[in-house]
Write a structure and sequence with these properties.
By secondary structure, the chain is an all-alpha fold. The protein is built from four helices and no strands. It has helices at 3-25, 30-47, 53-74, 91-110. Helix 1 packs antiparallel against helix 2 (30-47), helix 2 (30-47) runs parallel beside helix 4 and helix 3 (53-74) crosses helix 4. The longest helix has 23 residues, at 3-25.
Amino acid sequence: MSSELLLSIGAPLLGFIVFFVVQAAGYTSEKVLTLIAALFTVVILVTSPHRGEVVLFCVGLLLGFFIEVDLRLLGTQQVWAKASLFGVAYWLPLVWGIGVVIITRIGIIIRNLSL
């Protein structure tokens, strides 16, 4: 496995796992989780930048925000106990945004395209 592949895919996936383990433990405040998600996002976008990923991140962030808020207004399938942003956790749109970037990177690699 090349070092570029590890930096582009492996490190972000490991970061996601660590983030969600910390979040699931329930000991961390929403503001600290938001700070961790923001730092995680900056590190991913700065350490292995690719053309158009900032725009892709923004699209994922907005899309995730609207999906989470709209689904929250339509019903209560998922409830965020510590949610301050229209019933959604502050960090959630950030995770949606970076998730879209990582999923796109994985799709590019699977299709044998270059990052």
